[in-house]
Amino acid sequence: MSPPMLNASRSLPLNGEWLLRSDHGNVGLAEGWHKSPDEFLSPAQCHAATVPGAWQHVLGEHYHYLGWYLKRVTLPDDWSHPRTRIRFESVATAIDVWVNGHHLGRHEGDWIPIEFDLSTHAGPGRTIDVVARVDEMLGHITKGFHDMLSIHHGGIWGDVSIIGSGACFARPNGVSVRADARTGRVSVTAELADGAADGRLVAEIRDPRGEVVARFASGEHATRSVAPSDGGVLPPRRIEATTIIGPVEHWSPDTPSLYTATVSLEDESGAADTHIVRFGFRTVEVRGTRVLLNDTPLHIRGILHWGHEPKHLAPAPTPQQVRDEFIHLKKLGFNAVCLCMWYPPRHFYEIADETGMLLWQEHPNWHAPMTDDNVAEYQRLYGEFLRRDRNHPSIVLVSATCEHPTFHPDVASWWWRTARAMLPDTLLQVQTASFAWSDPDQTDLYDEHTYDNNNRWVTYLRDLQEKLAELPAKPFIMGETVLFHSWPDFEAIHAAVDQSLRWSLPSMAESGMDFEQQVIERWGRDTLERFRRQADRHHLLGRKFQIELFRRYPNHAGLVTNHLIDVPPCSCGFLDAVGRWRFTPQQTRGWLCDAPLLLATPDERRSFMSGERVDVRVMIANFSPRDIDTTVGVMLKPASEAIDIASKVSCDPSEVSRDRQGAVDQPLPHGRGSLGENDSMRANTNVGRLTARRGEVGAVMVMLTMPIVDRPTRVTLVVSTPEGRRNDWDLWVFPPPPPLPPATYRLDGLPFEPRDAEPDPLEKGYSRGFGLPVKTWINRLPDSAVLVPDALPWRPDESIPTDARMIVTHRLTHALLHFLERGGRVLLLASKAPGGLGTEYQWLFGQCPLVIDSEPSGIGVSGADISGTGVSGIGVSGAGVSPAILSKPSPERKGLGEGSSSPLQPGDSDWIIDLLGMDLTRTYARVIPVGKLGLLKHVDPIVRLVYTHDAKELTFFDMLFTTRVGDGVLAVSSLDHHDPAGQWLLHQVVEWLASDGSSPNAALPIDVTRPYTITA
What we know:
Blueprint: E1 10-13, E2 16-22, H1 28-31, H2 37-40, E3 47-51, H3 56-59, E4 66-74, E5 83-88, E6 91-92, E7 94-99, E8 102-108, E9 114-117, E10 127-135, H4 146-149, E11 155-156, E12 160-165, E13 170-179, E14 185-192, E15 200-206, E16 212-217, E17 224-225, E18 237-244, E19 259-266, E20 272-279, E21 284-287, E22 290-293, E23 296-298, E24 300-305, H5 319-332, E25 336-339, H6 346-355, E26 358-362, H7 375-389, E27 395-402, H8 409-422, E28 427-432, H9 454-469, E29 476-481, H10 490-496, H11 509-523, H12 525-551, E30 556-561, H13 585-588, E31 597-600, E32 607-609, E33 613-622, E34 628-638, E35 648-650, E36 687-692, E37 696-705, E38 713-720, E39 726-734, E40 744-747, H14 754-757, H15 784-787, E41 792-794, E42 806-809, H16 814-821, E43 825-829, E44 847-851, H17 908-916, E45 940-947, E46 955-965, E47 968-973, H18 980-994, H19 1006-1009
Parallel strand pairs: 24-25, 24-30, 25-26, 26-27, 27-28, 29-30, 32-39, 40-41, 40-42, 42-43, 43-47
Antiparallel strand pairs: 1-12, 2-3, 2-4, 4-10, 5-9, 5-12, 6-11, 7-8, 7-10, 13-14, 14-18, 15-16, 15-19, 17-18, 19-20, 21-22, 22-23, 31-33, 33-37, 34-36, 34-38, 35-37, 38-39, 44-45, 45-46, 46-47
Helix pairs in contact: 5-6, 7-8, 9-12, 11-12, 12-17
């Protein structure tokens, strides 16, 4: 056995300035530009273009046609290699290459490296003209999804180099290393390129510290033909060599130990083609409902990445950018990145290997046409993708396509068979989409791409368990899910984005900036600033809730949340449009980790009554490397000061079930023992034991006593363990609602009919019908008899009592309209029922909430404590923060006698924002389409949703508004008023309506109102 050859291959980089000429009319080939570059590709006729780089940098964002590149290269004087090739790492999309007028070849397909042999044109000191004709080929079958959310890139956007080697050389990505983590066996295979000579393979292996642990070689004449057991992808001519080393160090996200193989292919003269491959020893396998990485249960905490790179245009983040993003993502708690139908440059994967970032690689096929005629072309391109996926221990999951409604069955079966042969230690699935779109025999896991509101997310996960119980046991991993929106920082975006990148502005930028100006003019700049901050808070709270709920189920093996960075259609990124991180590790690490502490409250509520005793379940979802047996501490504190609450931890096994498959989701039993004082929060923290084996969810019971309060008060529940695990939740405590004002009536009659509860078409399936059918979600209609039972009944077949000051109703009748005209006050609990004004189901996560306090500006923007998860510190005014508030008498309501346009008090937006995706929409979640109804300019919004998702023009939906009708005042709410928060708000609106000071600015004409009324 001999050591690797020192006569190694050599690379001459061609990156830098090239000449580029556009060819919109496709005349270059006919005119012979490749034959006479001095005549047709002179500097005067061309642009200076940087390679690598998308040609849109010089030809403009809308150029998607053909272009010609020229690079004049002088080879070194000592260039004397038997074979010389030119290599292009990535070209979008088809390329023809000539050297000194001689055609070297053609290739179609982005994302993959290609090489052309120019040996006959190479020599010491020789000057050659490299001419490349590139066709961007809009709509190519493997263009992927990048252009749907970013810009369609074209040109030579990957590295270019000239390679000199021996006569025996490998095809692009042709050297693979297969490392068996259980046996230490290392198999090196080199697929020879067409035209390569026979030879032998010599390899050297170094361990993670750089020490040589093996040198080995194939036989002298080791080139052999191999039957295409891999589906016909691998060339029949290859060289293989094998050795065994040990003991080996395993690669994992926490310890990304990499070995290095130096592989030389020697020809008869001893000249070599040398490749350096870094690889890792690790296992990834499925066992029942779990994914095991090195025999340890793995929960994938992934973030979706669409390759949107405005500065680069092409999806080519720089090495430093990749490294910085991975570092911060891991600090946030992520352990995986899902590459959604695109391939970044090679360094992206190398850095993932080095840093321990797991990768989910989706092959770039988005709704591409799939006919019998292009099956062979798909096989060719997919074979190249699979070659890219080898050798990287970071790639643990690979999908052939994403959400393809007509994926060709022949391609699917071929891909499944071939991928299994080429990637034996990788999880595979043909389709990442949903149950209905995926063949269960062509996937290692189950998958769904579900996006829905918090309230339906609860029942979705329950319905999902029923579906999974019907199927053979496999892990469940959501390929993309959990999306919420923030409001763009237009000032920062415009300061950072120059004219050439205006395509990257938010799609709704013009509409959004108009809206901002309207907010400033109507309510002041402070309201706009609060709106921005509270949009971030709503965003973070939504992600926290949905991901935590998902983690309760031990048969859930992971999810990918959407998305890394803002894209033009939606500001849903952890990075904003100018590259600033929205959230800190302090805000996310408590619930984005391998063993998060979780909380289950009765009915998933976050609002409670003053002094209420509440049974909660504290859980831990253990996907850490070891079993957990620890103590747990529980503490309630005001938002600015840690004060323990008298609490009792119950860990009686008879009270708590730890289910290995279903969630720890049994009915909450009552705790036992003394709970301490009700009128204070005093130090008396108790602890219990929390245990969970690896891959399981453990739980203990805790009884909390809420403090006595006289106004809406935020308290933070902090749960921690001695090992440093911690998570916290903001809860809101409300005093009992005040008695209804005198002469407050409610509609008694006109009950809801079954059709009124019938879901909209989009409500019948989760994710607007693309996910599972809805089984357990039911809207709880707003019956005024249930919500305000103490109000005096008024039957619609009777005259309205003469002493009636205001009426709460779930239907707007002609009589109520006449009552309004004469100065009456009405609160309509909106619904889709006749007389309910007409409500809709909408994606609440696609909106940014605007809540108008009674003050015009400067309210609720201080941003107090940012502790624990930090969610209690975004856009928080401090209402309910000071311990003094716990006993301070409630102030008189301000403004009611002075003409108040809002029923809210200063700071009320804090608790409404916190609970808007929770208790205020828990059992009833519909919106009032004020724009569609023609009401937009006729109402004063109190709780308005600004819909931004995939929108060029903003759409507005209200959940609470007020307006004048005739001499009266109308308030309309589509919020859920069943829980303490909703009850408090309902009584607040009723009190405001009954006062002399309720005076909206907007007015709703009688003729506009009348069509929405009914005859009783």
